[in-house]
Amino acid sequence: MKSFTSILLFFCTLIASSQTIVTLDGLLLDRETKEPIRFANVSILEKNVGTVSLDDGTFKLQYNKNKVGDLSVMQVSALGYQTRQITLTQLYRLFQKTNVLMLDTNLAGVARATVGDPVGVSDTRLSGKVFSDSGPLQGATVKIKGTYREAITDVDGIYRIEAQPGDVLQVAQLGMIPTEVPVSGAGPVDVELKVDGQLLEEVYVKGEVKKDPYNTEFETAYGKREFNKLGFSIGQITSEDINDGYTNFDQLLYRLNGLQSSRGPDGELVYFFQRSVGSSVSQNSLPIFVVDNIIYQQQEGQSLPAIDVQNIESVTALPGIAASVKYGGLGSAGAIIVKTKVQAYGETGGEISRKNSALVIGNNYSEQLPFYDNDDLLPAYLGQLNKASSFEDAKRIYLSQGSFADSYGIPYYMDVADYFQKWDRNYAASIAMKLAELGPTNVRVLKSLAFKLEELGQLEDAKSVYQRIALVQPEAAQSYRDLAYIYKETGELNKAFGLYKQILANDTEGIDFSGVQKPAENELRQMLKNHKAQVDFASVSNDLLDVRFKQDVRVVLEWNDPALEFEVQFVNPQRKFFSWKHDMFDNADRMFEEVQQGYFMEEFIIDDDVQGNWLVNIRNTGLNNGDGKNPIFLKYTFYKDYGLPTETKEVKTINLSTYTQKVSLDTFLN
């Protein structure tokens, strides 16, 4: 696997050359086990100088002696260890005898589980390759069934995981059929995954093209597939086909392959697929219309909204076999999907307004939804804690739940940490840190922990977790962005600056940063506007130094599982809504790209838009909710006046597995 050393050592070169450069080479060890401590933070307080220990516990710290005095304090911190501070004078004396620094644990088991093998696991280290018929699969998850032990395949499809004979590997990848493989010995275990036919990328055949599809191959995310093996055909007209001669919607529909029309009982035109009706046209044999994700049935008393055909991005005819998977019984006779230019624009995130929808009516919002933290959904253990009348009483109840806590898995510690925020944030963080013991190399667990620590304001601990994730996933673009972001939040601006420049340059071998470049650029602009003098700003282009940079509202969504399918909806003060879908039907290309590049985030900007109260709704639309003990979590970060002195920030962590019905997540004043 590609080493993450390139990220960590990069920071050492950021200190400008000077006449007096001091280099400290040290080694960090666990005081009890004498094991090396990886990815510990080593920094000189208030001097913007720091580095991170490597896999063998060594670190190299360089600084300008003319700017850092002997009484300056070096601080060493690591996930699960007590923070140690020592003046440089004391350090010089120590290094005359030994360059070894010992750290003490602060949570039983956490540190050693973090730096060594998972608790209770033998030294058996299993490796293998995950592949499909088109080659190795990057980003596949390999998990030991019934445990939190999990690995992710690298660019060559290789995984390494602690396993014992008798264990069962659970292997999964987006767009593939998951499988289980028993472990019989220590030899390599290669796993082949088959493409899930229901999740193949849709093949679009433009309406005006009349071709025989037989024996024609089309490229999917996992190799070529013959058209006749897809199980259905699709007709589509795109904006490129819609010239100025088209004035009404019916003209477009006539061009769709396989779509026919007839007059209904009321004399109005109805549309149907040739094979979907018999001798008569009835309501249950007619395809539905879906306009910007709003479903309209062809029935008496319901008509389509007025549509400006020149503002249509695409019209797609989806027959019943595919439409029924997406829309259930309503789509059993097929679907005619209309995507306006505002909807197509929204699929890439970005600014929410700035373009007018083709709909004159139809995107009016009229729902009344519960908020996501509805007390009716509280688990029993939180109900017990809510009866506490004091902090001490709450701690007593929490300790009494220890006998069954692990049986609830990750949600228990996330929920209880959230509960204790009102009493003591440090105590809440200590509860959340239990996750570092349960899943020391499980990226989904670690991301959940990092999300919660950010919400609790424990940024130094969150930084340690993000560093661990980066070493577990060294080829993921998200690892670099998350480190840049957390370094910015902890005031380590040179580290953040170097990583942001690396992301925007996008010239790192083996890593594609294109999926995270836009949010990274916005974060770098915000940092440069407020802290330009503290970094080498002359090394970036002038457009990143715009002093006018600001965003009224910035919303960032991040999630811990690449297969998460969800919908987020923004409702403006005029009760018009905009929806963004992250699922395999509406955004399959995007989801495959996320897996290939290793990023799982989206940002939304509301700037110079409608003034008043806005609403944010969210819904889990997929079937993959993780397992009960390690579910899917989403981090929602809301910024107001981003880039201005009045900027505010709020972080929420949501267990999205429990919200299969749409709920309101936030409301704000723009």
Concise synopsis of the structure shown:
The chain has 670 residues and is an alpha+beta fold. It is 24% helix and 27% strand.
Brief descriptors of the model:
single chain; 670 residues; alpha+beta; Immunoglobulin-like; Ferric Hydroxamate Uptake Protein, Chain A, domain 1; six-stranded mixed β-sheet; five-stranded mixed β-sheet; 18 helices; 27% strand; disordered N terminus
Describe the structure.
The chain is of the alpha+beta class. Helix content is 24%, strand content 27%. It is built from 18 helices and 36 strands. The strands form ten sheets. A six-stranded mixed β-sheet has the order 16-19-24-25-22-23. Strands 26-30-27-34-35 form a five-stranded mixed β-sheet, covered by helices on one side. The longest helix has 15 residues.
Shape: globular
Mean pLDDT figure: 80
Order of strands in the sheet with most strands = 16-19-24-25-22-23
Classification by helices and strands: alpha+beta
Largest sheet: 6 strands, mixed
- Any idea what the radius of gyration is? 28 Å
Number of strands: 36
Low-confidence runs: 1-18, 108-123, 198-234, 276-283, 353-361
The structural domain count equals 4
% residues in beta strands: 25-35%
Question: Number of helical segments?
Answer: 18
Helicity, as a percent range:
10-25%
Q: Separation of termini? A: 46 Å
